[in-house]
Amino acid sequence: MGVDPGLTRCGLSVVESGRGRQVTALDVDVVRTPADAPLQQRLLTISDTVEHWMDTHVPDVIAIERVFANHNANTAMGTAQAGGVIALAAARRNIDVYFHTPSEVKAAVTGNGRADKAQITTMVTKILGLQQKPTPADAADALALAICHCWRAPMIARMAEAQAKAEAQKKLYQARLKAARA
Q1: Annotated catalytic residue: which of 16, 48, 51, 138?
Q2: Which of 9, 115, 173, 174 is the residue whose CA sits 20 to 30 A from 85?
Q3: pLDDT single digits (tens) 91-112
């Protein structure tokens, strides 16, 4: 499940990963909340919708856009709050959560970490073999996040495995040092 968090528009998507780089779109939507509604009501709307999606689609993993430095602190704060509500809902269901930066997503989907919204939408449409472009851009971004994670997941797993092996070697080495001192 890919999520492009936001208070006004929160993009949600569910994809299925196949062999290699094959990805199939299963569902996509955008949760909208009125800008003049109280913050807690906006977060509740997002939470209720996301929880319904998680219960309906039962995703293996959630990919959420990582908040990055933004010139507008209120926008960054709202994005972080929405992402936190989504991560919490996933944690309650024991669903793994991964955060990807916008540049990681852009690079994975378009080959360019500085791609614009139009390029992302075009590539998402092409990768998924969609009849028409997903709109608004938040829907395309949610699909791009899901695609990015599907394509990066094998590398993430290999890196975690390598890190675990390195930790095991470090502990073994420290045990040998301790035994040599004794």
Answers
A1: 138
A2: 115
A3: 999 999 999 999 999 999 999 9
**Is 51 known to be catalytic?**
no
Q: Which residue among the candidates 65, 96, 104, 116 is catalytic per the annotation? A: 65
Concatenate the DSSP letters of all residues of 156-176 into one string.
HHHHHHHHHHHHHHHHHHHHH
3-state secondary structure of 140: helix
pTM above 0.85, yes or no: yes
The yes-or-no answer on residue 167 being catalytic is no
DSSP state of 20: T
CA angle 125-33-131, nearest 5°? Answer: 15
* Active-site residue flag, 4: yes
> Model confidence over 54-92: pLDDT tens digits?
999 999 999 999 987 666 787 888 899 999 999 999 999
Calpha distance 108→101 (Å, rounded)? 11
Cis previous bond, 136, omega within 30: yes
Q: Looking at this protein, which amino acid is placed at residue 174?
A: Q
Q: Residue holding tokens 């073994």?
A: 172
Catalytic: which of 4, 29, 36, 96? 4
* C-alpha span between 54 and 77 (Å, rounded): 24
β-pair type (96-100, 61-65): parallel
